Amino acid sequence: MTAFSSSGPARRLVSVLRQAGITNTDVLSVIETTPRQLFMPESLAHKAYENTALPIGNGQTISQPLMVATMTQLLMQHECKSVLEIGTGSGYQTAILAQLIDKVFSVERIAQLQYQAKRRLRNLDLHNVSMRHGDGWEGWRSKAPFDGIIVTAAAAQIPQALVEQLADGGVMIIPVGEQQQTLVVLRRFGEQIEQQRIGDVRFVPLVKGELL
Questions:
Q1: What is the pTM (predicted TM-score) of this model?
Q2: What ranges do the domains of the chain cover?
Q3: Collapsing DSSP states into helix, strand and coil, what is residue 148?
Q4: CATH assignment of 8-201?
Q5: What is the distance between the alpha carbons of residues 52 and 73, in angstroms, rounded to a whole number?
Q6: Residue 161, C-beta contacts closer than 8 angstroms, at least 6 positions apart
Q7: Each residue of 11-43: pLDDT tens digit?
Q8: 97, 99, 125, 156: least buried by Cβ within 10 Å?
Q9: Which residue numbers are catalytic?
Q10: 113 with 47: CB under 8 angstroms?
Q11: What is the dihedral angle through the alpha carbons of 42, 46, 47, 50, rounded to the nearest 10 degrees?
Q12: Do 63 and 53 contact (CB within 8 A), yes or no?
């Protein structure tokens, strides 16, 4: 695993995450040492270790660190060796996953964001990520099944294609809803689906199609 150094602001952020209920020490360690400022416009770098979502262009945001930590911690409660991420965005969540999971597959519908994220991950020497420009609603069927799927935008309803790409016993972490959004943990056991609602969230919408 690539090792990065920590900083005072990063340690303070981790303290905030602990107080908010994040207990997984691996997740906290990776968030503390991953340079979040590299995943946002330079003009916002001074806000990198605030617990807030920030704009990254193209109508998208880099998620609030607490939400990244929460979704990653939920995923890490299960044995996941291969994970599909829907919505690469800045690549920050991807970088967190890449330091905790053996193989990460990430789909992004906006080509410019995907290009920028790929360059950031390469610069950080994170090479266990495969990236694809495409429609997140469709997932990445040729690489399925996945032990885990993490969706970083809110779907109006759970995409059936993603459910079908979960391995038996696999877990999906996904925000669902339009005006009212709820974070859902979905487990697949054969043809049986179990869902657990975690709480209210706010994400950009999971849009169908792709942009060049």
A1: 0.93
A2: 8-201
A3: strand
A4: 3.40.50.150
A5: 18
A6: 137, 138, 139, 141
A7: 999 999 999 999 999 999 999 999 999 999 999
A8: 125
A9: 63
A10: no
A11: 140
A12: yes
